[in-house]
Amino acid sequence: MSEPISILLADDHTMFRQGLREILERKGGFRVVAEVSDGEAAVVQARAYRPNIALLDVSMPGLTGIEAARQIASASPTTRSVILTMHRDERTILEALRAGANAYLLKDADASELIEAIRVVHRGDATLAGSAAARVLDLLRRGEGAVVTGDLLTPRERDILALVAQGDDNRAIALKLSLSEKTVGNRLSEIFQKLGVSNRTQAAIVAVQRGLVPPPDVL
Known about the structure:
By secondary structure, this protein is an alpha/beta fold. The chain has 2 domains: 5-139, Rossmann fold (3-Layer(aba) Sandwich), CATH 3.40.50.2300; 145-209, Arc Repressor Mutant, subunit A. Helices cover 52% and strands 13% of the residues. Helix 2 (39-49) runs parallel beside helix 3 and helix 7 (155-165) crosses helix 10 (200-209).
């Protein structure tokens, strides 16, 4: 059997945090290694436990969940951050993704959506809740912060990035472009380095903002 996904819970509402623990432990395949009520403690516990996933609220005492995600990315690079919050505005969503969050979900999401998001992020991908995706896409389509660059990426890298922006995983990209999955993974690492990002969602956002790929129908 595979090891359970280790999770750090960070939320200043005790009952909500306890409810999350019960959902995860009842489902199976997850192990909550720490619970904290503020952003600073989240960073400390991420450094101590190196969990697979840090599940973070945005509004917490001290450090916000967004700043905690940024610091966790440095303190525990193998930990992937999932934001779970009531904040629906697109600027908060973009700020979280730029800070290194791999997923952004709203607290009114159902349990199955949360479970699937955690599994997607643990596999190395990124995800946005439907309404959050729509808000980010609307902001990108309005062109806010757009800066067109020169030939930053090769034509093949642009092809790969366009498919990433559409939500395709490495296997789907490999099939569409007649490449191996390993080649796609290597190319993505090079793309992330060129764009100065750490995950797929950040890469898609930066690429659309800079005019490197057209806005997708679904982000």
